[in-house]
Every structure is written in C-alpha cells, then in structure tokens.
C-alpha cells in the first residue's frame, strides 16, 4: 500500500506560519525553516510580555502617585497607607491618572487623608 501524506494540511500549516511572519526582514518572512523559528520566538515573547505589561504599568502608576504625593510632603507608602486607612476605594490606576491629569482632585484626596 502506498504511503499516505496529508499535503493539504502541510501546506495550510506552512501558509499560516508564513502569514504570521509577514513584515519580518529578510529570509524570516519567506523561508519556511527560518520563518517557523522566528514566529515561535515571537510567540514566546508575546506570551511573556502580556504578563510583563501588567508589572510595567503598575510600576508606572506607583511612580506617578509618588511624584504627586511628594508635592504635598508625603511619600508613596505614607500616602497609600492613609488612603487605605480612610477607606478610599480608588486603585493605583485611577490615582495615577488623577495625579497626572487632574492635580486639583489629587490635592483634594491628599488633603482628605492628611
């Protein structure tokens, strides 16, 4: 009995990978073995960085809140401790946005927790 190979699935798989490699430089975009490795590595990076993005944004928010709080003579940790103690239910994302884009509202929060 002759050997059966599924060329249709093989071609579809290659087309899918080469489509994902669209826009890459040089042989990474059109040579199967190089494109396959490049796409695999890109997927690893994207998986990792979807998690890292959350850390980076939290660090950015903390930096912005710290800068805003220090204008009124408080450190970040003092400010956040007093925010929690006073039962203010604003998260870091909102506080950072207020500190940057709405300083009057942030000052009102600082005055309330002092």
UniProtKB/TrEMBL annotation:
CDD domains with a match to the protein in the record: Ribosomal_L20 (cd07026)
InterPro entries in UniProt: Ribosomal_bL20, RIBOSOMAL_L20_CS, Ribosomal_protein_bL20_C
BP terms from Gene Ontology: ribosomal large subunit assembly; translation
Keywords, alphabetical: Ribonucleoprotein, Ribosomal protein, RNA-binding, rRNA-binding
Cellular component GO terms, alphabetical: ribonucleoprotein complex; ribosome
Annotated transmembrane regions: none
GO-annotated molecular function: rRNA binding; structural constituent of ribosome
Keyword Ribosomal protein among record annotations: yes
PANTHER family recorded: 39S RIBOSOMAL PROTEIN L20
Stated role: Binds directly to 23S ribosomal RNA and is necessary for the in vitro assembly process of the 50S ribosomal subunit. It is not involved in the protein synthesizing functions of that subunit.
Family to which this protein belongs: Belongs to the bacterial ribosomal protein bL20 family.
Protein name: Large ribosomal subunit protein bL20
């Amino acid at each position: 009995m002759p050997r059966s190979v599924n060329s249709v699935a093989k071609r579809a798989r290659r087309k899918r990978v080469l489509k994902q490699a669209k826009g890459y430089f040089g042989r990474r975009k059109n040579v199967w073995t190089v494109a396959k490795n490049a796409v695999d590595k890109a997927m690893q990076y994207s998986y990792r960085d979807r998690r890292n993005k959350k850390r980076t944004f939290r660090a950015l928010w903390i930096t912005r809140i710290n800068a805003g709080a220090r204008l009124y003579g408080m450190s970040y940790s003092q400010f956040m401790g007093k925010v929690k103690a006073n039962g203010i239910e604003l998260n870091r994302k909102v506080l950072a946005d207020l500190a940057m884009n709405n300083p009057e509202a942030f000052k009102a929060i600082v005055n309330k927790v002092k």
